[in-house]
Amino acid sequence: MGQILSDTLSQIYENLGDEIENLSVQRVVVGLFFTGVKLSNGVCGVSYTPLKSFPQAVCCPSQAMVMPNSGNICGKNVKTLLKDLSSESPIKKTIAVAALNTLSQTCYERSASPYATKFRADPFEELAIKRDSFSVIVGALVPYIKFMMKNGLDFRILELDKSALKDDELKYFIPQEEAADAIRAADNLIITGVTLLNDTLEDILSLKKSGADAIVVGPTVSMSPKALFDRGVSCAGGIYTTRADELLDVIAQAGSGYHFFGKFAEKFVMKRESQHSKI
Q1: Whole-prediction pTM value?
Q2: End-to-end CA distance of the chain
Q3: Check: CATH 3.40.605.10 for 116-240+265-271?
């Protein structure tokens, strides 16, 4: 388990105390694009589903090995899922992160976050990108890539799967062997929350230069942000679920954010400042 996830889990255990012993898993949905977990308290959390991390699941025996407990998860205590935060299985870890995000929202609903919180907002809007600055986008974050291209800003893209980029975006792509130098030079880092799943986020943040702005974004990062802020992240953006079952139904039907934002979940942004406003 990465240290960011470990620190976040410790904080959640501290905040919830014995309450976590009474929280059981009610629903688990692994969709094409997102994975969701609903607990017995009615709260739901979400994570990105990294489908391309499952190439070994090509026939029934190998598929069964990827997720051996299918059909036997609901009703168990949530801590059963949290054990998989350190799993080598991408799908188990994805479900565990969704459960972690469910508990993070539970903590928020018990006592509002000490951080400045804005709903129906995007962390990218919190970046004041200067014309002469250099930015690195980690992940194929299409809206941000389009914005940078449209405005003629200086940026590069780090993405493990080059095929995720369109032809006109490839000129901004940089290979992994150049990644460290690009991150060290960046004035702005825009990072996908999927880096939590592949354990690359901590390395990326360790290379951030002093004074650079870093945001982490996406449903996967819908978690208590202290561990991120402690490592230099200035703003984190995730989703806050408002109608759990409807959201899970959409995910089960191969739905994406376009299908549930504003209906069953809201985007939110947390900053390091100590003021907050609830939904």
Answers
A1: 0.90
A2: 31
A3: no
